[in-house]
Amino acid sequence: MLKRSPELIRERRASYAARVREQYTAVFRDSHEAFRASREFFPNGVVQVSRKSDPFPLLVLSAAGSRLKLVGNRELIDLWAGHFAMVLGNNPSVILEALQQGMADGQFLQTGVLAEIEGEVAKLILHMTGGGQVVFATSGAQATMNAIMLAVARTGRRRVLKMAGGWHGVQPWSVRAVQSNGLDVAGFHEAWTEDLTAIPFNNVAAAHEYFEQHGSRTAACIMELVLGNCGMVPADPSFVREVRSLCSEYGVVLILDEIVTGFRVCLGGVQRLYGVVPDLSVYGKALSGGMPFACVVGSEEMLDLVSVLHKPRVWADVGTFTGHPATLLAVRATLRYLEDEGEALFGAVTRNARLMRTEVRRILGAKGICSDVTGDLASSPISGFPIGTVRFIVDREQYARSKSPVVHWDDAVSDVYFRNHVSKAALALKGVFSWQGLGVLTAAHTRADIECILQAYEAFACEIDGLFPGYA
Fold first, then answer.
1. Which of 33, 214, 225, 262 makes the best surface tag, with the fewest CB within 10 Å?
2. Using CA atoms, how far apart are residues 200 and 182, in angstroms rounded to an integer?
3. Could you please report the per-residue DSSP string of 255-304?
4. pLDDT per residue as tens digits for the range 316-327
5. Would you state the pLDDT for residue 209?
6. What is the mean pLDDT of residues 464-469?
7. Which residues contact 185 (CB under 8 A, 6 or more apart)?
8. What is the CA 216 to chain-centroid distance, rounded?
């Protein structure tokens, strides 16, 4: 068998991408027209840039359960689920009924006074997370920023430590080392982020080196237990234990960002599975049924810094729409449902995730396509994390040598454009709305859905056979 040259492989991949683009444009003409019109109103043609895809995003008319409905009665299995927020699936009846009842009872509109539901939701969150007090927010970015503000106020220090590749929202303590080693967005002056340092994730030696040099001047260490922006890479328990120990030794506030992980595989956060107790935790997405909500949870001592008795205080409990009754109705309904059904629900989701990940690996491996299905780690206590991606590897030797999750964004190692755009269009043509080559499973996804997804992947794998280097 003749060995294919890298140049020939790249040419074939480009040719395939062009064919997919042509087919996608022909099939989804209505979406194309809608996107062309929307570019007149929005800088990127969409209200949120991650919803933009090449050649254009799809126009969805409605969503229910695991499905999205498009023009022409075409349905897609949804593997994005509202940026991973719809843990119960799209428009679940338990949320819709809570909102309808709340509107009928006059609870829907913001009143500007104390509401009973605020305390009910707070009690549920604290019961499930083990925290002492909670501060509400309207987005994950706001909540992570509030948590760091609390750490800075508590310690009187300036420096903040994060993990390379970590994403904590568009706020000053997140925008360095998201996809590279530098400042990854415009609009933030270097002086605003000069005290922000990133170290390699799951690297104990790097953590020790940082704390030895800067620990006594560091206010906070913020990290995820699954590094979402780099393909859902779970933390190694030994790394988590070491970071917790170092934070305690140097008086650094440990913040666990569980916006993505919280309430997804167990009640509360996956910190329980790791056996680690942070100083502050941040939750969002899954616990609110798709409504705009996040929160910071911590001890009474930590959150007392928000009290008006402190001069100056941390202004973490402001915002017109913070604790909006409609949002809290959805949060309460979601938490009550998870409390009642959680064990069976989480078990089914993690089993389906393990099955899908295993089978996608098998399908690609059977074609000899050099790839990596992300989202698990042998040492992780999470038995089947429901979100994963597929890296289509173009340099297997370099990929094997790389130890950093930031390789997820290295075009010299894997084809990022193919993962994020070409595979998305190709799988949409086969009835699957994917995210970075795969996506997320929710409680609404059935075994029948999994079978449809795998059938789509079988067809996709046949199409891309020979477009990437084979295994050695």
1. 33
2. 13
3. EEEETTTTTTSSSS-THHHHT---SEEEEEGGGGTTSS-EEEEE-HHHHG
4. 999 989 999 999
5. 98
6. 93
7. 170, 175, 178
8. 31
Class of domain 94-336: alpha beta
Sequence ranges of the domains in the chain:
6-91+343-464, 94-336
pLDDT for the residue numbered 316: 92
Spatial distance between the Cα atoms of 416 and 407, rounded to a whole number of angstroms: 10
* pTM of structure: 0.94
3, pLDDT greater than 60: no
Backbone CA torsion sign across 99, 104, 109, 113: negative
Closest CA relative to residue 404, chosen from 212, 179, 208: 179
Question: How far, in Å, CA of 139 to CA of 141, rounded?
Answer: 5
- On the question of pLDDT at 259 being above 50, the answer is yes
Segment among 28-42, 98-112, 450-464 with least mean pLDDT: 98-112
Measured in residues, the chain has a length of 472
Distances (CA, A) of 404 to 202, 227, 387: 9, 11, 19
Six-digit token string for 317: 């409990």
Which conformational region is residue 198 in: left (phi greater than 0), alpha (psi within -120 to 50 degrees), or beta?
Answer: beta
Say if residue 167's pLDDT is above 60. yes
* Average pLDDT in the chain: 93
Domain 6-91+343-464 bears CATH identifier 3.90.1150.10: yes
Helix axes 325-366, 93-104, angle to 10 degrees: 170
If phi over 0 gives left and psi between -120 and 50 gives alpha, with beta otherwise, what is residue 218? beta
Cβ-contact 270, 350 below 8 angstroms? no
Contacts of 260-263 with CB under 8 Å at 24 or more apart are 260/84, 260/224, 260/226, 260/228, 260/285, 260/387, 261/224, 261/225, 261/226, 262/286, 262/287, 263/87, 263/128, 263/287, 263/334, 263/335, 263/338
Helix, strand, or coil (residue 337) = helix
What does the pLDDT average to over 282-292?
93
The pLDDT value recorded for residue 471 is 62
Q: Which tokens sit at 64?
A: 């229910």
**Cis preceding linkage at 55, omega within 30:** yes
Task: Please say whether the beta carbons of 193 and 186 come within 8 A.
Answer: no
Name the 3-class secondary structure at 101.
helix
